[in-house]
Design goal:
Blueprint: H1 9-18, H2 24-30, H3 32-39, H4 43-48, H5 56-68
């Protein structure tokens, strides 16, 4: 499957899969630069960071969600 240069469908899928009352549109826009920066890296550079391309959306947005909704003690 060939993806457009700025296809962010994986972000939409990730945010909808966690769907617990957050505003995904605002969250998506706020962190799109980090997502696109990682997505622009080669597969080898991503592996050096310990991730695969299909992990980018989860890596960027799960970190954000953890900060926004910290676990209760």
């Amino acid at each position: 499957m060939t993806r457009a240069k700025h296809d962010t469908t994986d972000i939409d899928w990730y945010l909808s899969s966690i769907g617990f009352g957050c505003n995904p549109a605002a969250m998506k826009r706020a962190h799109l630069r980090e997502y696109l920066s990682l997505h622009a890296l080669s597969d080898e550079a991503l592996l050096a960071k310990g991730m695969r391309r299909e992990m980018i959306a989860e890596r960027v947005y799960s970190k954000v969600l953890t900060m926004a909704h910290p676990a209760q003690p």
